[in-house]
Amino acid sequence: MATTIKMVVFDMAGTTVNEENIVYKTLHQAINNAGYQVSLNDVLAVGAGMEKLQAIKSILQTYAGINDEDIANDIFQDFSKQLDETYSSSDMSAQPDTLAAISKLKNKGILVVLNTGYSDRVARNIVNKLGWQEGVEFDRLITASDVTNGRPAPDMINLAAQMYSINAAEIIKVGDSIIDIEEGKNAGCAMSIGITTGAHTVEQLQSAQPDHIINNLLELLPLV
Description:
Layout: E1 7-11, E2 17-18, H1 22-33, H2 40-47, H3 52-64, H4 69-88, E3 93-94, H5 98-107, E4 111-116, H6 120-130, E5 140-143, H7 155-164, E6 171-175, H8 178-187, E7 191-195, H9 202-206, E8 212-214
Parallel strand pairs: 1-4, 1-6, 4-5, 6-7, 7-8
Antiparallel strand pairs: 2-3
């Protein structure tokens, strides 16, 4: 007998939210401001989906051979300040068909949780800009601020499961990065699904061996 899906956990930027890579462009700028020349593609390849201080550490280690907490923290502070300034003047929107897909899931009685490598403050700024409300467009928002270990550790998904007393095997994870797929697999989700609307290419997503790759969130519905 097939497992009943009780929850879908969606990543935010690149999956449900189109914010034109504002966060990663800002992260890229902050790293370059500190004198480390990396490309935006480098930032996306290594940092997409991660808690952002950890992303900085991973990018510095991968492309500059740097493993220094103080340097990473200084870059993170610059990044956080720039991001606040950028968000105050930037527009963002839902990814195509996001609200239609979420509505159909909720009509089936399936819980919708947003999770993200952003801090709680940044994530709530995003949902507020979109006009989304907890309990309306989504059931819960879980961020890197809420757990000890960020992606690819399963902590955020485990927390969502605990909140609703369900098993990870009754959850689908959907995200636009390798680390989203790894998170879902590490949690033991029924399916870990990649989507092509964000940070990583089809080829990059395939390297994480997702259960499915979709191009639009409505393609999720026949899989539930």
